[in-house]
Design brief:
The chain has 170 residues and is mainly beta. It has one domain: Sandwich (Jelly Rolls). The strands form three sheets. It has a seven-stranded antiparallel sheet. A three-stranded antiparallel sheet has the order 7-6-9, with no helix packed on it.
Length: 170
């Protein structure tokens, strides 16, 4: 039997956190809510936000693009993803992405919910509603090292020009 709670969270509801890699998270489900089964958060980011090449050794990660677009690389293959698009990076597989539209809003689901300590260590609660704030990659790297949930493998694997050339159409 599941140890998760019955939860309904509507648009805009959930704890808001500024992620120091660049982005405003709205946490829809945390590991405590789901008995550790998963973590689900909305992530709002601006154009040019980029992640380093990284992997998650103990959880799978799914992204669903609500609006805007990203260029994602999973296991060495680049792919543009627009609204309604889904990505899946299995545990242990290197991946990275960059935002290629003025703003993107996506859902991120990780299963199981063991990655939550990384995001807690790399973010702070906020009341802001726009994805702006200080970026602190040293804090992100430290949270990755402390939690073991994310392994930073290297810099972003694509250039700004590559990202701009691969924006999906309307």
């Amino acid at each position: 039997m599941s140890t998760g709670k019955r939860i309904v969270r509507n648009d805009g509801e959930g704890d808001k956190r500024w992620f120091y890699g660049g982005g405003l998270h709205t946490w829809k489900l945390i590991a405590d809510d789901t008995g550790g089964a998963l973590v689900l958060f909305e992530d709002q980011m601006t154009e040019g936000k980029v992640t380093p090449l990284h992997r998650h050794p103990e959880f799978d990660e799914m992204l669903y693009v609500l609006e805007g677009s990203i260029l994602i690389q999973i296991d060495g293959e680049d792919q543009p993803v627009g609204p309604g698009g889904t990505t899946f990076a299995p545990r242990g597989v290197p991946h990275a992405f960059t935002v290629t539209s003025p703003m993107v809003r996506l859902l991120c689901m990780q299963t199981p919910g063991s990655g939550q300590p990384f995001y807690e260590g790399a973010s702070d609660p906020t009341t802001q509603t726009e994805p702006t704030g200080p970026v602190d990659f040293d804090r992100v790297r430290q949270a990755a090292a402390d939690s073991g949930a994310t392994e930073i493998l290297g810099p972003p694997p694509f250039t700004a020009r590559q990202a701009a050339d691969r924006v999906p159409g309307p």
